[in-house]
Structures are given as structure tokens and as C-alpha cells.
Amino acid sequence: MRNPIRLKNLSARYLPLYAAGVAMLLLHSPDPRALLAAVPLLLAGLAVRGWGAGHLVKNDVLTTTGPYAHLRHPLYLGTLLIGTGFAIAVGGLFSVGVLAVLWPWFALHYFPRKEHAESGRLEERYGEQFARYRAAVPALWPALRPWRDEAVVGSAVRWDLDRYSENNELGTLLAVVFGWLVFWWRSGGLG
Question: pTM of the predicted model, to two decimals?
């Protein structure tokens, strides 16, 4: 099993984000009810990311099974759900402020940049197969019916725990659980 701590997530470029989170928790105690309301989003985000990570075969095949048959970016959708869950967990007007920053940043900066880079890399590697997949499968809003195209030879793989681990999803799970526990501790719980 892969080490769940990704050193790139501990780099200096994330320091302002971590500092802002710590400052917010020091200045504001989350509402326990808001924390409980956030749980469904956190669980949904973890589920979508975990489902995607267990199917994703990076750089070896064009992954089109599991959630990738419904949307091209399940890991980003899961991350957005988790971020939204934590924004709600903060509670009160802080939630509105965090969401007012998170969603525009994700929609206008982060996702377009990642989509451009990843699509370019995949189109270069898989050509027409990726172009057909990209044209048929939505980026973030899942299609109800899974996409299938016999002309696209994608990965016909089932979800796999080793792949989940290799894609470092255990680190995401631990980070979300740890973050939620810190929020819960800071809120004083229901007592």
C-alpha cells in the first residue's frame, strides 16, 4: 500500500491556504449543526473520488469505465463536493464567504487550467479516441447513462483497492477525516 502522505501537498505553495484555514478556525468556532449538515457532501465527495481513483489507470490506458463513463473528471467533482462540504461546515456567514471564493476560483481558474492541460495530454496520447470520448462525456456534471463506444478502446477494468491506493486516495480519505475531526473538536461537539 502506498504512503498516504503526499509530500507535494506539504509544499510551500499551499502554506497560505493552510494558514488561512488555521486562522479561520482560531477566529471562528464551527457550528456543530453545520458540521453535521456537511457530512453528506463530504461522504459524496469521498465516494466519487474513491470510485474514480479505483478505476483510474494513469498514463497507461484511456480510462472510460466506472465513473469515467459518466463524467470525465470524477476526482475534481469529488474535490469540489468535499470543498463545499467543508465550507458549509464552517457555518454562518463564513460559509458564504468561503463559497464565494471557492466556487469562482474553481470554475474560473483551477478547473479550466487543469482541463486544458489534461485534455491536451490525453488528446496527444490517444488522438481520435480521446476526442470522441471528450465530445460525448460531460466534464463535471455526470450523465445518467454510462457512455460506451466500441471504437474507443478504453480500460475495461473494475474498481481495484491497489489502484485506489496507488492513486493516493487513502491520503485524501485521511485528510478529510482529520479535517472533520479538527472542525468537530473546535466546535465543541454537541455537548
Answer: 0.87
